[in-house]
Predict the 3D structure of the following.
Amino acid sequence: MLAASALECVRGDRTLFSGVSFALAAGEGLLVQGANGAGKTSLLRILVGLSPPAHGEVTWSGQPIRRLGEAYRHALAYCGHPNALKDDLSALENLRAAAALFGRKITHEAARAALARVGVEAAAELPVRHLSQGQKRRTTLARLALDSAKLWVLDEPLAALDADGVAWLAATLDAHLEAGGVAVVTSHQTLPVRARFANLRLGE
Amino acid sequence: MSPVLAAAAGVVRRDLLLAMRRKSEALAPVLFFVVVASLFPLGIGPEPDLLRRIGPGVLWVGALLATLLGLGRLFAADHDDGTLEQMALSPEPFAVLVLAKVAAHWLIAGLPLVAAAPVLALQYGLPADTIAVLVASLVLGTPVLSLVGAIGAALTLGVRGGGLLVALLVLPLYVPALVFGAGAVDANLAGTGAEAQLSLLGACLAISAFFAPWATTAALRIALE
């Protein structure tokens, strides 16, 4: 479903990576690894269409994502390195605002249930400023449970997560892939998933 | 509600909620406006004719500079915490979400200026029907300031010292709104009727409402790359 052919990324006069190609079918995941500065985040930003590649093309269901536009973004959930949370809003308000951005109105109860699933229900009403890094990460990831997106692109989702959080994320990824979804994840750690994850190493 | 409107309403609601949580930041433009417009009569002294002559210009310049105050932060906070990326990746058109942000900016920074203007105008001894024209010109003009200002804020996103740069970029573009806005009030004072200037101000609003979201969106996409 998601395919990349001969992607090249150039920053200034430095080539971060070139000739990156892969194809993922429904139910498959890709784990992107590499040293700091190898271009993992740059690759993800190219995959979601935030930055254009210097060379090559990303296709979704056989169509270039540039041409698909909104149809592609409908199928996409992206969690970047920043948490995309507002420090002055509570976790509940953040989650509802994030859902509204995707044209989905969710009820107070649905948002609360999603936060309970990631284990931050106790801090749901607190301004996010007072939450720990791990709790912030969990709040960001709670969005995945609400979304019906087919393609998940997660940048360092394990950063700041504790063992329970990692287990929850692995189980959620497994369920997502079993349901026919696709996921691209970067991580420095190993991801304890059962589903098939191809490995892509950048900078080698 | 269609998904597009729901997404736009969600952006407006979130920004209003954030403004409520940081009241001092949100109130800064209107406080600045009140201070500037109140200092002029004190500095110039009680000369009714002179005050009436300079009143429209001072009030309009005050409103314009007050709008500039928070402009640098319009997209900066969203850019820093990653929300802007999420907006760009939303399935709803980015331009509509940007327009919603500008609308929220006007509600927070522009509308209080419109509300404060009649009271401040009393200090300049403007007659009632002139005050009505002043309010009308601000209702049409302050959205132009927000829309055009958003282009400048988007172009200087991520630039160090962007606040000053925004002012330099945007002030020349504010000139038509200032000329027509203050001109409408002057024309009413002179008894020639303000319809022409108000119509031109309306035209400015129509043009900027059409082109500004598009230009802002293009600048934001470049900043996000």
User: Anything to note?
Assistant: Chain B touches chain A through 30 residues (CB under 8 Å). The two ends of chain B are 32 Å apart (CA to CA). Chain B has nine helices and no strands. Chain B has one domain: 3-224.
